[in-house]
Specification:
Elements (H helix, E strand, L loop, with lengths): L4 H7 L8 H4 L8 E2 L5 E4 L2 E5 L12 H14 L15 H13 L4 E5 L2 H12 L5 E5 L4 H8 L4 E5 L4 H18 L3 E6 L11 H6 L7 E5 L14 H5 L7 E5 L9 E5 L1 H10 L1 H4 L6 H16 L1 H20 L12 E6 L2 H15 L1 E2 L1 E3 L8 E6 L7 H19 L12
Parallel strand pairs: 3-12, 5-6, 5-7, 7-8, 8-9
Antiparallel strand pairs: 1-2, 2-3, 4-10, 9-10, 11-14, 13-14
Helix pairs in contact: 3-12, 4-12, 5-6, 13-15, 14-15
Length: 415
Amino acid sequence: MVQDIFEKIKNNRGPIGQHAKESHGYFTFPKLEGPIGPHMIFRGKKRLNWSLNNYLGLADHPEVRKADAEAAADYGFASPMGARMMSGNSNYHEQLEAELAAFVEKEDAILVNFGYQAMVSAIDCLVDRRDVIVYDAESHACILDGVRLHSGKRYVFKHNDVEDCEKQLVRATKLAEKQGGAILVITEGVFGMRGDQGRLKEIVDLKKKFDFRLFVDDAHGIGTLGATGGGTGQEQGCQDGIDIYFGTFAKSFALIGGFIASDEQVVEYLRYNMRSQIFAKALPLPLVKGALKRLELMRTKPELKDNLWKITNALQKGLVENGFEIGETNTCVTPVYMNGSIPESTNLIYDLRENYNIFCSMVVYPVVPKGMIILRLIPTAVHTLEDVEYTLECFSKIVGKLKAGEYMSDKIASV
């Protein structure tokens, strides 16, 4: 008997989707309103917001807003029309690519429309069925989806376990030699949930033993790490060892889109073979000119990154001193680990938002194991030390309630 796809969907809404009716608009798909910054409106009330990857505070920076508005007025969002290869190229696109390549110390770069889509497409473009992929177990979903589409063999290594990475490279080498293929290692510069840096320098050192190329997704690293904001490889002194560098505009740039940087010939290959870009409309000029302005500010205003780290250090130091578990983060991503059920987590978040006016992201099963709650805080350059102090006071109160069982329930919070 053939099953109806709609009936299958109705009977299995997914681990998060099963709570859609109760959670939609509050715990999932919430609507934050007003200028993007540390204080925004949620359901008619002003909240202290720790939930946006606006690391450098560029989303509402006056120079950025001015550049965005002028570019939109000059070009509209239709220009240029068509894919880059056919009719959608411009001097500004090429200027941005050249400046981005220089910023991350690579020969060339290619702009991409969406980071997630681009990572999937780049993996598909770079490897064929004879090639072998070795990747970190806790890689972002875009990497996992790209790896799953790979028609060849793939080996996963335990998260940030360089010894296990080496073991998988031994296996990959044997297979690649047998098949006449190559090896691509994929990992992240910063893991967006835990906040720990990928062990890039140690993986690069494995090139002394093995032949492979290294592809790094540095979505959370660019703009936040390194002497000039050039990312995790710059921070660890191994940028040269990163063969293919991916950066998104969705975080430090406070925009949309991204880029891939590498050797000139590799970028040229991607430019002529990466299907998600060949067959998709070019980034609109307001986004391109907006990215140029943001990159200019990253280069010329180091105080943005300095203030980001002042807030980050104060927040993380305060959490630890108050007895909170923040794991092994050594980046701006600040996870606060707690124990509790999904209903407890929703009651806690409801209390935090409604009674303390703090908005932050909640992470529960299936993203993390059952019984674990992560409150994920993202500090920015436009938060204040007063914001940090107030948050620490409120967190001490809610964790006390959690331990006292005040959030216990058999169903998620009613909103």
